[in-house]
Amino acid sequence: MLPVGVNFTVQTHYGTSCTLLLFHRNATEPYAILPFPEAYKIGDVYSMIVFGLDIEEFEYAYQIDGPYDPKNGLTFDPNAVLLDPYARSVAGPRIWGNRKIDGYHARVVRDVFDWGVMPQSTRTMSDLIIYELHVRGFTYHPSSGVTHRGTFAGLKEKIPYLKELGINAVELMPIFEFDETMNSREVDGKTLLDYWGYNTVGFFAPNIRYNSTEEYNQEGTELKELIKALHDNGIEVILDVVFNHTAEGNELGPTFCFKGFDNKVYYMLTPDGHYYNFSGCGNTLNCNNPIVRLLILECLRYWAVSYRIDGFRFDLASILGRHEDGSPLNNPPLLELLATDPILRNVKLIAEAWDAGGLYQVGRFPASKRWAEWNGRYRDALRAYLKGDSWHSWDAAQSITGSGDIYGGHYSDSSSNYAGYNSCVNFLTCHDGFTLYDLYSYNEKHNEANGWHNTDGADDNRSWNCGFEGDCDDPAVISLRYRMIRNACTVLMCSRGTPMFLAGDEFGNTQYGNNNAYCQDNEISWLDWGLLEKNRDLFEFFKFMIAYRRKHPIIRKKLPDAVCGMEPLRTHDVNSEKTDIPRDTKTMAVSFAGYNPLTGKDDLVYVALNTHWESVRITVPFLGNRLAWYLSVNTWGDGQNRYFYPEGEEVRIDHEFIMPPRTVAVFTGREVRS
């Protein structure tokens, strides 16, 4: 390949000089040190073209000189080797867990990937079923059966499984370049790493240790092949992005990028020059500084354009709405910028609407008409109610019906201003907390393996061990645990809003009671695919519920009024004629009704929940002479391990139904079969 000219451009506001360092591949000492002439600077931007370079033979970094006055936020070190903040690839060892280096170098990336004809997805938030997964943990266990374990290619091998399950969106835990060896420790003979990856090193670069092969100067190709394959199979890709802090930490942390370019610009600093820590990770990005806003915007545009990403989930997103002094802004410039950007116009924006500094904004996240939110109220209310805490009945009912009370409008409001199901992402489990199996196997967290004497992780889990803590061989306890899992799945898939669940929940994956497995790169976090065969009936149940949700659009969104006269969305007491449920009821129901123009028929769904430890007799609404209710789901089962009934096999229910203890049932209204 002929040598070419490469343009190097960076900016620093408070820095006084800039030097380019060129390294041979994998070298630690530069072979060329090139100061930027002052004539190559306009404003705060240094730029020059270096000719005679072969991009496959060099790596690069920068050094910035400037004043050193930590109390005023100025921490320039002319000897620090600095990574390009806009680097498309970060050089380093490709072997996971083997990245002990003194500094980061960047590579120039040649993008030659052919996407072919691939229109952007037009699927709405309400039509998504999101499956959250960790790229490495999803396939690294030997039982995964893939050739390229723990990689983008390994995940690609699992696409047939994802299609069979029926989900249509994957949410990938952080795949930006991060250092998993940061803060590595030895605990009980095991090396603990930064497994989750919520400490970003480079925002524009994919993590090369998720590749199965070397990709010198074409980094990102394997990831793009994965995304294209997912898209070709009707599955969208959402990235979990971390713009609230970086891996540089606080005053004791390293300087490898932003601290060296402009510490005072990129981080929120106290009046005496220390780091605000609203992230809980040592520092907080100064997101509403104009320079940082531009970096975040350009980053998201890059991933949307160059990687065809369909959406972003923003970790601790409330930080994105804080002023430079840490105070919350009423109309944060960054959130407004992202919400109105033309390139991001059809990209999903999902906020984790809280931060580690106590700012909790679920239901009132700024620019919420454009942003969706992780619905923390849904998680808390349904976890509590499903295990029998009846005093959460009202919050549970509101959550199932779209959380209209916190997203604008009552559940029966049909106005166009009702955000509801367009705004909330409903979930009971995610990477942070118990798996669904553990939610019903443990009363308490068991994080001893993390090495913090079980002091880390959330204490408010609203879990229930069904009578025995941890592993158990009591058939009654085991049966109850799996019924509780089916209950949770049924309610999640029959709630208005966007459902999301954690990978492995569909076959009973466990983390052995660890609810904060951020550092566990081992059997605690890796999905054990042997459980898929062991719990095949649970997997089939998830499949059915996902398919049921997709078949009945009335669950997801408002349709024209039902011909039969049922109201679009209602809660019900044990007696279906009573639509106001008692404050502490243990049994209730929710009905969805509308006319589906595609089928030319009413779409009618009735979901009943009995969280009591005793059976309860309920009634179902009267539908007239032509229509009847048919039992589609009964999480108690029929005694033959049958918990759902495909269309044509359902059991007709005339007016009453006995709800067994701790059971959820779903009824479908349809024309009476002769």
Automatic annotation (TrEMBL):
This is Glycogen debranching enzyme. GO terms for molecular function: hydrolase activity, hydrolyzing O-glycosyl compounds. Belongs to the glycosyl hydrolase 13 family. One of its GO terms (biological process) is carbohydrate metabolic process. It comes from the Bacteria. The lineage of its organism: Bacteria, Bacillati, Bacillota, Clostridia, Lachnospirales. Residues 132-549 form the Glycosyl hydrolase family 13 catalytic domain. Pfam families: Alpha-amylase, CBM_48. InterPro entries: GH (IPR017853), GH13_cat_dom (IPR006047), Glyco_hydro_13_N (IPR004193), Glyco_hydro_b (IPR013780), Ig-like_fold (IPR013783), Ig_E-set (IPR014756).
